[in-house]
């Protein structure tokens, strides 16, 4: 994979730091798919993806891994294909499982530099956050991207500082208040539209994903740039 332009921007040593990261992503949908895409294009060579979902036609408007030809296929399978089509040398482990308390101990969280939570299930989010806090593993979690239209309201913050977000509110009720300050999240301060359906567009979930990548790369290189 030709990364000459990236190397020109950050330098050879920093590029090697990025390449050597080991990343875990849980959820390869609207937010997770764009996170994966941008991390792959940054040259990261070792990524594990977890998702127990199938591509549906309703995913086409916002999920970068989807197209008319792969509807009905496993998301992790298609995400892996796409990653390999960009960087043929990437090591990408695809796990078609629903992560919960019954199988999370089968995942060696300690071996990852960053855990990325872009899943939709509240119980899984709580489980991941608590496990990562317990093991002192860096985690960044996506809050709600649906029912929103304004990317200028998206921010990287900590769980305790979130507002106007129903997912964050549920997490704050469960996770210890002091620990909330240690949990990096991407959230929006935009008030969600008052609609029943989880309406979503192409660019808000994408921007959430790019915010996550922005955090990981700049956190990795913060002492050298």
List its salient traits.
225 residues; seven-stranded mixed β-sheet; 37% helix; single chain; alpha/beta; 7 strands; Rossmann fold
Query: Would you identify the regions where 5 or more consecutive residues have pLDDT less than 50?
Result: none
State the helicity in percent bands: 25-40%
Specify the biggest β-sheet: 7 strands, mixed
Principal-axes geometry comes out as globular
CATH class: Alpha Beta
> Structural class from helices and strands?
alpha/beta
Instruction: Give the termini separation.
Output: 23 Å
CATH superfamily: NAD(P)-binding Rossmann-like Domain
Total DSSP E strands: 7
* Whole-number tally of structural domains: 1
**Average pLDDT over all residues:** 96
Strand order of the largest sheet: 3-2-1-4-5-7-6
Oligomer: single chain
CATH topology: Rossmann fold
**What radius of gyration results from the CA coordinates?**
17 Å
Q: How many individual helices?
A: 8
* Elements, N to C (H/E): HHEHEHEEHEEHHEH
CATH architecture: 3-Layer(aba) Sandwich
Describe the overall structure.
With 225 residues, the protein is an alpha/beta fold. The chain has a single domain, classed as Rossmann fold (3-Layer(aba) Sandwich), CATH 3.40.50.720. Helices cover 37% and strands 15% of the residues. The chain contains eight helices and seven strands. It has a seven-stranded mixed β-sheet, sandwiched between helices. Helix 1 packs across helix 2 and helix 3 crosses helix 8. 39% of the residues are buried. The model has no long low-confidence stretch (mean pLDDT 96).
């Amino acid at each position: 994979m030709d990364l000459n332009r990236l190397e020109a921007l950050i330098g050879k040593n920093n590029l090697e730091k990025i390449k050597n990261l080991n990343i875990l992503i849980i959820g390869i949908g609207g937010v997770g798919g764009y996170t994966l895409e941008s991390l792959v294009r940054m040259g990261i060579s070792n990524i594990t993806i977890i998702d127990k979902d199938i591509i549906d036609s309703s995913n086409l408007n916002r999920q970068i891994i989807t197209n008319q030809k792969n509807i009905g296929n496993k998301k992790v399978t298609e995400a892996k294909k796409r990653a390999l089509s960009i960087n043929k040398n990437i090591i990408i482990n695809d796990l078609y499982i629903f992560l919960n308390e019954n199988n999370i101990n089968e995942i060696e969280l300690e071996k990852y530099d960053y855990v990325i939570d872009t899943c939709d299930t509240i119980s899984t989010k709580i489980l991941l956050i608590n496990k990562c806090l317990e093991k002192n593993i860096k985690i960044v979690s996506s809050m709600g991207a649906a029912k929103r239209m304004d990317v200028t309201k998206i921010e990287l913050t900590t769980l305790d500082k979130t507002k106007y977000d129903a997912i964050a509110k549920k997490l704050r009720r469960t996770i210890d208040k002091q620990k909330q300050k240690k949990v990096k999240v991407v959230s929006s301060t935009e008030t969600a539209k008052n609609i029943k359906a989880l309406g979503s567009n192409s660019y808000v979930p994408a921007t959430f994903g790019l915010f996550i990548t922005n955090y990981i790369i700049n956190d990795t290189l913060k002492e050298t740039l």
